[in-house]
Specification:
Length: about 230
């Protein structure tokens, strides 16, 4: 069992839908999704370990650990199966969790996810690498620098998911990204093409389509759910 308890926002009734935010954010990122999907689902918007109101704890700060935290959360909430929708690093957590525990996932949504750091456009990744190196220099003396180094380190070092491993994930998966996403579109298409049962949606906007183009984003997710009823 995890060394921490994750903070979460819960709203609505119906089958469970888990929302996983991106790196450096919190459950508030999904402010345009929580109320919308709570009309039909019991929405659980989580704060990842060391994000928002969830404590850092002492366990490793890795995508694998975050997936373990999610498993522990589902167990604590007595949720045997859930829809999971993850954004950015949250999408990476969702994918890692789905590969490890497919029996716990009904349908999976991957928004702006990547299989490895090379999936991020160089113009975005290079400043991240530089920021990580700078934060690491001061991490031993400044708690804020240490926190920044941990966050940036996730994007520099992780994830590492082989495209071939996606072929064993038979559940329905929505792969969704912005038309001007920080993830290479060829990489997003690779994810979709590597999955046996995927739906690819490219929506007008940046990496942050759920926040900045919520009407189109919510409609795409709703259509995906409707096309793959439980």
């Amino acid at each position: 069992m995890s060394d921490i308890s994750l903070y979460f926002v819960k709203k609505g009734t119906g089958s469970p839908l888990i929302l996983l935010h991106g790196n450096g954010e919190n459950s508030g990122y999904f402010s345009h999704q929580i109320d919308f999907f709570a009309q039909e689902y019991t929405v659980f918007a989580l704060d990842t370990r060391g994000h928002g109101q969830s404590p850092r704890g002492t366990a490793p700060f890795t995508i694998t650990q975050f997936a373990q935290d999610l498993l522990d959360f589902l167990d604590r909430q007595n949720i045997s199966q859930a829809d999971i929708l993850g954004f950015s690093d949250g999408g990476n957590i969702a994918l890692k969790f789905g590969l490890s525990h497919p029996e716990r996932v009904t349908r999976l949504g991957l928004n702006g996810a990547n299989l490895d750091p090379s999936g991020v456009k160089p113009a975005v990744q290079l400043p991240i690498v530089l920021g990580y190196k700078i934060a690491s220099l001061f991490a031993g003396k400044d708690p804020k620098a240490l926190h920044n180094a941990e966050l940036l380190g996730l994007m520099v070092r992780e994830p590492h998911i082989a495209p071939a491993s996606l072929k064993r994930l038979s559940i329905p998966v929505l792969v969704i990204a912005g038309s001007r996403d920080m993830i290479r579109q060829s990489h997003t298409r690779l994810i979709a093409e590597s999955l046996p049962d995927s739906t690819l949606q490219i929506i007008s906007g940046s990496h942050f389509i759920a926040a900045r183009n919520p009407a189109a984003f919510n409609a795409a997710v709703q259509d995906f759910f409707a096309a793959h009823p439980i």
